[in-house]
Hints:
Helices cover 39% and strands 14% of the residues. By secondary structure, it is α/β, with parallel strands linked by helices. The chain has a six-stranded parallel beta sheet with strand order 1-9-8-7-5-6, sandwiched between helices. Strands 3-2-4 form a three-stranded parallel beta sheet, sandwiched between helices. Helix 7 (177-186) links the parallel strand 5 (166-170) and strand 6. The longest helix has 23 residues, at 13-35. The model is unreliable at 1-5 (pLDDT under 50).
Amino acid sequence: MTSDSQSATLLDGKALAKQIEQELRTRVDNIKDKTGRTPSLATILVGDDPASATYVRMKGNACKRVGMDSIRVEMPSATTTEELKAKIDELNNNPDVHGILLQHPVPDHVDERACFEQIDLAKDVDGVTCLGFGRMAMQQSAYGSCTPQGIMHLLEHYNIELAGLEAVVVGRSAILGKPMAMMLLNANCTVTMCHSRTQDLAEHIKRADIVVGAVGVPELIKAEWIKKGAVVVDAGFHPTDNGGVGDIELNGIENIASAYTPVPGGVGPMTINTLIRQTVDAAEKSAGLDAHK
Length: 293
């Protein structure tokens, strides 16, 4: 990688997601031809959170684009933990469902973790179960949490050599920061995890060869903290009048970084793309057509 100010690589998740969708269409057609069945993702939406409804709709549209079926399960806000677990069991036992996504967040009275754990590992295409996380961390077969797995696909596509790099992940959520750190560790990075109580955050970031912003705070990470030639991955998105900002101050970043993700159009499209890709993987496994990992 070079740190020449004119040559920062834009890590274009939108373009890569489109390219992968073409490959997925071919794989979906192959499954249909060989089995007569259509790969299917079940999405469960509990309550009426408008942002969650938008995300579920986007996931349904992505299924449609590659020729998959999308089963939309909508449950009222008053749904109990036991009712939600029973619905997940029903989907676990349905051979026409290859992947299950429980849209986060669920209403406060529902035990979200218990419901995530109810998802069959073979259908945990969103990478939310403890067993899936543990298997991924131990480099065993499992579906990775979609945002960090999508980031890894993006870095691999752009031939960013990770081995030996010092990586700083800012954020420690169960579906982003923690699995991201494990995936980078498995790719032979030296990983530091930072969070809301980290002291001297700027000092950690100044050392980093790769910075992942996954903390959920608009532009918390300042451009002036970033080392010349670093790879900058911004997994945050916060709507603004100008289209949105991430967790990292990206203004002028092309003159500092060797590669960076734009906001929007970087990490976001790869998250949904990974969900669809892992559902196709699950459908192939279920049909005994396990040509893809």
